[in-house]
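Please check this today:
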Amino acid sequence: MSSRDDTPRPPITLRKGSGRVGPFGALIVAAATDPAAARGLAGAYALLAVAARRRIIEAVLSDASAEGISASPALIALLAVEEDPELARLIADGLNSAGGDGLRSTVSPRALLAGDQERGGVLLIRPLHGTFVEVLALGWTSLDGVTHAMFDPLVDDSAAAAHTARLPDGLRFEETPTQLAVDVLAAVLWSHRRKHGSLPPGVERFSDLFGIPANPLLGNL
């Protein structure tokens, strides 16, 4: 059996006036502006063997250099799914070399709130990089605690508010100061954990905002 790796790589294309351009140039650009492209890149990368993942990292770095663009947005997508310490360090080195170009957020944290502690819902939107954000959406009643929970780790800010459609009908969401939304939600979450013994899924990513340990064994219930 041959030891040669036959992992397919898209053909190198020619761009007028700039010579040979690597196959990942367009994908790197897309990963900086399109969450679906970033998730697709990360998902495909995660399925590869270690040796193939290393070549993908090297290809992203070389093609970004050939395109004259930052590799950081693509690298951060790969880092999110990389479990091998050596490859994670390679990605981190690439990010350090890029100086964080392309990772500065251009949006602000915000919140949409509906109802009150008796029955309501909230959307917390937190910046990641560029126009990418992560979203926590929760709906609740005083009787049952949190009844709807949804976490989206990567979405464009322009589409974040659409996640209210996945929460209970009849709630009227309005932009509200983030701290007010956090205060309302903190009370809801404390009540929910007293009822059910744990936090709803996805909340652990935002638990630092509420002063609630993500581990139910920590702190008093």
